[in-house]
Every structure is written in structure tokens, then in C-alpha cells.
Structure prediction request, 250 residues.
Amino acid sequence: MTLAPERTDEPSIDDATITALPWNVVVWNDPVNLMTYVVFVFRKLFGYSEAKATKLMLQVHHDGRSIVASEPREQAEIAVYRLHHHGLWATLERS
Amino acid sequence: MSPFSWEGSSIRVELGPDERLFLPALMVLLGRVGQRAEDPAAERLDPPAYEDDAAADAEYRRLIAGELEAARTTDRDRFAATVGADQLSRDDAESWLRVLGDARLALAARKGIVRDEDGWEERIGDDPELGMLAYLGFLQGSLVEALAAGLETTA
Prediction:
């Protein structure tokens, strides 16, 4: 995948500090995506074991959402992009 | 019996002639997403990345929109090129997964199916569009099963 985000603003020290904080990648429940498909996507995108991917999928299903990864902001945005490409409903939030 | 199974390093596709004739309609469906004002399908396929920060979301979209559109175009081109094929590569099959999934999301969004409580599966007998949602789910589920078996062997 070629993804080269270019931020044109000069980052201030504050920005750099904020950017270094981990961000949570949140996946939300939806009534359409198949459970087996969601497990497959978690395994494929994050390299999780079937057991871990299944646990996260069930958390999404029962609790309505699950934090599936915590990353620096740029990586978290790429994870959200890849989840959207796979049709999952994903958002970012500060951890 | 599943219409998708591994045969060597490719996925064998066993679909009937009517299914082959129908599947290109998914590209018609997806090609029209976002072409009308306030399309729930477009909103579902491009959800906000930042729910409570419009500026951050706008910046994210500026960076990502072209990339996402290009990735979806690649998927749809692969699907179109192989919709009549008897064998799919893994990449082809993954594009099929996403095209089938996007089509289901678009259909469901336009039917107002947004929560588990909407219980669409119980109403399949009342509405042919829900039958289509279920049929596409069967195809996607069968293909996921085949591809997931492949993940175990390559992991």
C-alpha cells in the first residue's frame, strides 16, 4: 500500500507531543457484516490469532464496540483506512 | 455445498449461470453510490474517522479519500475481470469479499438497517431485497470460510 500522508503545517512542539500519544482504533457493531468476516479482517489486518480476533469480534457484537488496536496517530489512521476499505465501521479516539 | 474451495493455490468457483449473470449488477449498485443527495449507502461506506472532531475528520478525508477510492476501483476492476472465472487468485478472492461486503452494506443502509434490533433476518420472507442481502451474505460467508482456512496454512 502506498500511503504517504503529507502534513503541510510545521509541527510545533505541542503538536509533536500530541502526535506521539497512542490513539485507539475503535470498531463499532453493525447488523450486516458477518461475524466470520470480521474475525477474518482482524486476523488479516492486525495479524491476530483466531482466538484473539474472535474475542474482539464478540466484544464488538455484545458491547457495541471494541478497541482493536492502539497506535501512534499516523498508524492508527492507516488502520482505520484499511478497516473502512474492508467495510468495517471504525473510528479513532485518544487513548 | 460451498461454491468456493481451494484447488492448489487458487480458489475454485462453482456458481450457476444465473448467478454469473446476476453478479455484475453489484457493480451497477456500487457505481451509483453517492450519485444522489443524502445517500445512506455513501455515508455507511465512508463513515467519519473522527466522530467528534470535524476538523480532524476533514484533514483525514483529504489525505485518505483518493487512496480509498483507488483501492475500491482496484477491487471492482478485479471483480469485473473475474466474475465469469472458474479460478480466483487470493487477491481476486479478497476483492470479491470486499465487493460483496460493500454491496451488502449499501443495500442495508438504504433499507434503514443500522442496528441489530432492526432484525432484518426475520423479515426475509417479506421483502425480496432482504433475500438478496441474505444471498450475498451466503456468498461472502462461503468465501470467507475458504480464505480463513488459507490464513491458517500461511500464518
Observations:
- The radius of gyration of chain B is 17 Å.
- Strands of chain B lie at 4-7, 10-13, 87-88.
- Chain B touches chain A at residues 44-51, 60, 63-64, 67-68, 71-72, 97-98, 101-102, 104-105, 108, 113-116, 118, 120, 133, 137, 140-141, 144-145, 147-148, 151-152 (CB under 8 Å).
- The helical segments of chain B are 17-22, 25-31, 40-45, 54-82, 90-110, 128-154.
